[in-house]
């Protein structure tokens, strides 16, 4: 059974790259995290260490009684969060945000290279399957699509009851098709559907496995 991390180990986990889960620490700290199942050492050079799903859960849960990082990922927190559309307080747009998004996308591609068994860049990795909404939103934002604001014009990515599937809503049919093309290029399987109540078109997207 995995024991809770020590305070020092928790600091290393909390400081992991928010997208890739890459860790920085002493050899002893990293070895201890591997021993207790919070991290793994990549077999390929430079043999960096990354959070395991258990490590990600530890970081995302936060300390008892505090919000998880996803609920407090704002422009001032230092934690990157892709825009899923419809945020009450979205990150400020501009050159700085553009650099953050590009850096996060490049980090995600590097994570694919490091963690997909064949090093494939055109297929989502385990982190994306565990963070479906954020992963799909990052692919859309990195490609320049407009997330929905208070007026709901733009894309919105939402979780669904289906395993490994997200819904992408976009009121503009041409923009919806463009979102589908972007996700397909990013390695997602995409289908277009009608909402049974509103009859509005939306996308159902799942990470491609092969």
Automatic annotation (TrEMBL):
Domain of life (superkingdom): Bacteria
Segments of this protein annotated with the region Disordered: 50-72
Protein name, as recorded: Uncharacterized protein
């Amino acid at each position: 059974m995995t024991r809770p991390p020590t305070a020092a180990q928790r600091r290393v986990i909390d400081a992991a790259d928010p997208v890739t889960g890459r860790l920085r620490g002493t050899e002893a700290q990293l070895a201890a995290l591997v021993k207790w199942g919070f991290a793994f050492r990549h077999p390929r050079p430079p043999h960096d260490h990354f959070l395991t799903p258990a490590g990600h859960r530890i970081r995302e849960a936060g300390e008892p009684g505090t919000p998880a990082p996803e609920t407090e990922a704002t422009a001032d927190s230092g934690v990157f969060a892709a825009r899923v559309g419809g945020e009450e307080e979205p990150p400020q747009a501009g050159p700085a945000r553009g650099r953050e998004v590009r850096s996060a996308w490049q980090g995600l591609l590097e994570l694919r290279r490091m963690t997909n068994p064949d090093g494939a860049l055109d297929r989502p990795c385990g982190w994306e399957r565990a963070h479906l909404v954020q992963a799909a939103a990052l692919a859309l934002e990195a490609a320049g699509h407009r997330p929905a604001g208070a007026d709901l014009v733009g894309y919105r990515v939402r979780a669904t009851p289906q395993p490994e599937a997200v819904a992408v809503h976009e009121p503009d049919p041409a923009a919806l098709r463009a979102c589908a093309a972007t996700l397909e290029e990013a390695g997602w399987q995409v289908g277009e559907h009608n909402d049974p109540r509103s009859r509005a078109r939306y996308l159902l997207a799942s990470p491609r496995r092969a």
